[in-house]
Amino acid sequence: MQFTDLKTQFAALKPGIDARIQRVLDHGQYIMGPEVQELEAKLSTFTGSKHCITVASGTEALLIALMALDLKPGDEVITTPFTFAATAETILLAGCKPVFVDVEPDTCNIDAKLIEAAITPRTKAIMPVSLYGQVADMDEINAIAAKHGLAVIEDAAQSFGALYKGRRSCALSTFGATSFFPSKPLGCYGDGGALFTDDDRLAQAAREIRVHGQSARYTHTRLGVGGRMDTLQCAIVLAKLERFEWELQRRAEIGARYQRLLADVPQVTVRADRNSVYAQFTVMVAQRAAVQAALTAAGVPTAVHYPKPLHLQPAYAAHCCPECCEVSVGLADRVLSLPMSADLSEADQDTVVAALRQACVAAAPA
């Protein structure tokens, strides 16, 4: 059993992927070839965002968004510690300071009710994370940002395709940033990502920053990075887009089935006004190490997203007191992600559920 079954997905998409790759090999435009613009147009239409800028990775998407906002050293960006390191990493790389706000215990997303208290005169942006495939409380976050004149960057690395009150993730704020890492709901076969915005000025800045700050060839208007998405990777995502709507439906069905079969097991709650693309299906268990070991022995792969909040990581500990964000700390000891992909069979899902139940019973204190 695969944690994320990319092999079955490739078998289904192989003719289209092969044709797309061959087309790039034939025209030989490996950097900024026609597939880049084609993908950007299709992703823009899909999300409903005015501009899409493909970039080298989800990390680059966050960094370029911060750079496009022209933040200054010492400016503060509010975010969550219960996320992958790239969220805070890019804030520091941009010369800013991450300010950590705790998460909701049921969704694991940033708790919007706690954000306003963290705002200072140095705060310039809020970076909520759409964790596990579900968007955070973006209306509330955007309202706080508007009140205080702040930008909002949605870290949507795990939620591309998700809906929030009828609108797509990545088209909900100043910037939306996503990742096409292979295991994501829409992934390439290497690194890739995209930025989305309705702001013409910010879109132009992002396009220049991704090519070393060039507004024209060898005219470097601003500080930039080597942040382009390779043509080959764009071609692969274009091929995968052909069945992406089907995959989103399958993820919804598989996620709903997990919810039914594990109704008595604590799990990430999906709010009624949004959905999840289930980048992961995550439960909360006691005695996680024992449960995970038992699942491994039963042939069921699992993962932990994430075992230690960022404010307790050596690289970021100076930016928050150890006693802060106690909900994140508690979740980090209990979350466990189960196999999830559009091609997960009911038989394999039943195996996962049965093994999890057995493991939880075995790990329970006598």
Description of the molecule:
This protein has 366 residues and is α/β, with parallel strands linked by helices. The protein has two domains: 6-101 and 109-241, Type I PLP-dependent aspartate aminotransferase-like (Major domain) (Aspartate Aminotransferase, domain 2), CATH 3.40.640.10; 244-363, Aspartate Aminotransferase, domain 1 (Alpha-Beta Complex), CATH 3.90.1150. It has eleven helices and 13 strands. The protein has helices spanning 6-27, 34-47, 58-68, 86-93, 138-148, 200-209, 231-241, 244-261, 288-297, 326-332, 346-363, and strands at residues 51-55, 76-79, 97-100, 123-127, 151-155, 163-164, 167-168, 175-179, 193-197, 214-216, 219-220, 281-284, 335-338. The strands form four sheets. Strands 1-9-8-5-4-2-3 form a seven-stranded mixed beta sheet, with helices on both faces. Helix 3 (58-68) runs parallel beside helix 4 and helix 9 crosses helix 11 (346-363). It is globular, with a radius of gyration of 20 Å.
Chart the SSEs and their pairings.
Elements: H1 6-27, H2 34-47, E1 51-55, H3 58-68, E2 76-79, H4 86-93, E3 97-100, E4 123-127, H5 138-148, E5 151-155, E6 163-164, E7 167-168, E8 175-179, E9 193-197, H6 200-209, E10 214-216, E11 219-220, H7 231-241, H8 244-261, E12 281-284, H9 288-297, H10 326-332, E13 335-338, H11 346-363
